[in-house]
Amino acid sequence: MLTRLYLSSLLAFFFLAAEAQSHTDLEFSPERLSRVDSFLQSWVDEGNIPHAVSMIIHRGETVHNKAYGWADAEKQKPLTTDAIFRIASQTKLVTSIAVMMLYEQGYFLLEDPISKYIPAFANPKVLESYDSATLDYKTIPANREVMIRDLLTHTAGIPYEHPLWARTDFEIPFLASLEDVVLEDAINQLANRPLVHQPSEYFSYGPNTDILGRLVEVVSGQSLAEYFQEHIFTPLGMNDTYFYLPLEKADRLVTLFKKESVDASLEVSTEETYQNFARSGEQTYYLGGAGLVSTAADYAKVCQIILNKGIYNNVRLLSPLTVELMARNHIGDSEVWDRHDKFGYGLMVITEKSHYGDQAPVGSVKWGGAYCSEYTIDFENDLVMQVYTNVMPIHNYSEFVRKYRVLVYQALVNKE
Asked: pTM for this one?
């Protein structure tokens, strides 16, 4: 009996090992990969999106990098793969990497209260009740201070959709600003808002990473733009990633469009701030949660830092153990919205119950941006995939990015 159990266990082990090994042998089929082209081109042709760039990197090699649509439709100028996109919340991974770099250097512990570095967050209050008409409210004391780790995991109780968002004494620019706003003032203003729940109670996505950007400034003594440039962009050779574009690159920023419903036509966005923040205005607001513009090729280097456990092209920014820490579940039983996924430090983590990750293996990590872009980092298949367009609002964001990911994975097949 014991022998049979032993043999059954041994066979199961070898079966699972062989199955895991088979994933490492998967290759991209050029024929099936052409379905990605058909999909993206069809979305452009049908007027769902104005343009797109796709980039897929497998085992360190770029297997797909194409552009679709027009840089200028009137002049019949095709989009190119070096187009610069507004990447919004994909900025959050860059800021999270910066935070973990400083953590590795001993500047702070992740359990430190953020008020130790930004005193405006001392003695936090939690919203107990409010009047939606008058915006009057009552608070109770928080049961503890907000920690740095609460901000990395979006469990601090600081959401974007705050019930009191309309109060001017709490207002900060959301994604960008054309005014002479500086990060320090905006974050001190944000600290006036009561938390919507007790720290670490559950996942509530919001401007937490903007606060972390200010933390980087405080402990490094540099502006966030200066820190990114010196410690991340220059070492990695990210020559097209900025908060604000130099004049000679301004024309490479794609036009921002909007599509407000299924039946609405695709139109050029008239939202002046989001259309033009990267090339006009005061250019003083270094927003760590949303402010960067970049290219697919540049941002691929950020993704590969995570995929390669802290190193890219012989440049090491983080320890492998630190990257593994970032890619773990740090929100307990809480979940990311209705996706049944978890969140680590700056990264969403795909689970076996995922309603969003599709074929992505458990433990893969991802995030995206409000202007409609997304990346997936797949450790098991040594794979990075990215897709970019710039449409906001866009009613079918999830459909677009998920179908793209499905099309990428269906092209990964056994070697023939």
From this structure: 0.94
